[in-house]
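Hey, sorry to bother you again with one of my protein questions. I've been puzzling over a protein and I'd love to understand its fold better. Take your time with it, there's no hurry, and the full record follows here:
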Amino acid sequence: MSDSVSPLNDPSASGKPSPNREQWSSRLVFVLAATGSAVGLGNIWKFPYITGEFGGGAFVLIYLICIASIGIPIMMAEIMLGRRGRHDPVTTMKKLAKESGHSRSWGLLGWMGVISGFLILSYYSVIAGWAMAYVPRMAAGTFVGLDAQAVNSVFSNLVSNPETLIAWHTLFLFMTMVVVAKGVRGGLEKAVTYLMPMLFLLLVILIFYAMGTGHFSEGLSYLFNPDFSKITTEGVLSAMGHAFFTLSLGMGAIMVYGSYLPAHTSIAKASILVAVMDTLVALLAGMIIFPIVFANALEPGAGPGLIFKTLPLAFGQMDYGTLFGTLFFILLVFAAWTSSISLIEPAITWGMKTFQISRIKTSVISGILVWFMGLFTVFSFNLASDVTISSVISTQYGEFVILKDATAFDFLDYLTSNIMLPLGGLMIAIYAGWLMKQEYSREELSVGSFWFPIWSILVRYVAPIMVIIVFLNAMGVVAFVRSIMGV
């Protein structure tokens, strides 16, 4: 069945689906799909690490406040726009702008989502390929008895081999496009219906394994013991940034998923459930990782090094480490897979609408384009690792460094994460809060006379200000100003 849609005058205003547009079968499926989009590689390593670094339970409290004031209001807005438009992000924003009497140039917001999802998948697929590559290595006992230097060599050998990276990049992208090509009910819905419960099952199994390390309480203390002395400006900025980025906002994925949402489904309840489940996955990941790290007297490092260097070393030294290490990397693959299918969906829906071709053809073409774009990331770790970009602005107060010795991968990551996504989230908040007619947003949200003004205040004032701060911090402006002021 094709998801191709009719022109702008279709009956999809007020959240009514066009006759040939598929929908999620239930709110639960939407929540699983949106959670799958939100839960990714960053949940497994970044959130646990920054939680411990910035005060444990104190950071979690600040993060939850940020989720309530940034994440949930903007997620509600993005879902609302998607459901009312019932199209791809570009067509949705043009249609809604016309409906409220504003410029069709708001379609640029949709374009930003389509392009950012496309670019992110191009390098996300390569990084996810690393996780896939570690599954057979872990299962074969490659890391058993290895010291830190040998474990580092395994990782270095992997990323320095372009043929190997291309092979895993190809396999992961093929898995992604097969799901997307099958449509909403036959592909996306089936995938999340199986993958998300399996992801949570793997989390539970690994939690029990972590309990047997003898350092479970130490891991819990690292994560949840509130230490307000560690709360700094940097910690608050990290909480604000992660609260925005963790929910996959600003890239069009949630808008497209919202376009498949049945009209009777509560957007507010669904958004809260997604935020809760996303946070739960991140905390469970920390409860798994840190007991294992502490049991082996290792340092809880940040970034990919924790996943691909520190943890394989730990699993290689522990009883049943081969089995549970394999399960852990399968968990990573599942998390990456559910995210990747949402990243390309905005481009798929736009391609079908624009060129009037089937979902399968659109998926094949999109997959090929993403695959070629992914080669820039592949080669940035080996053949073209010495090709870098630097952008430094000299002022009377010192140098303002935007990029320094950035590879193609670094540049794509910076462009999407630091510029496109925050701008996308900001524009969503501005349109939903200031430009969309309130009777339309009231009709879609249906949250009652008490909660609607609260959402309106958050999405009009609080969230935009906080996203602007996140954007300036990601751009390095905040750090530059603080250095000038000597703070």
User: Anything to note?
Assistant: The first strand starts at residue 389 and ends at 395. The beta strands are 389-395, 398-406. Residues 297 and 314 are 9 Å apart (CA to CA). The domain at 19-485 is CATH 1.20.1740.10 (Amino acid/polyamine transporter I).
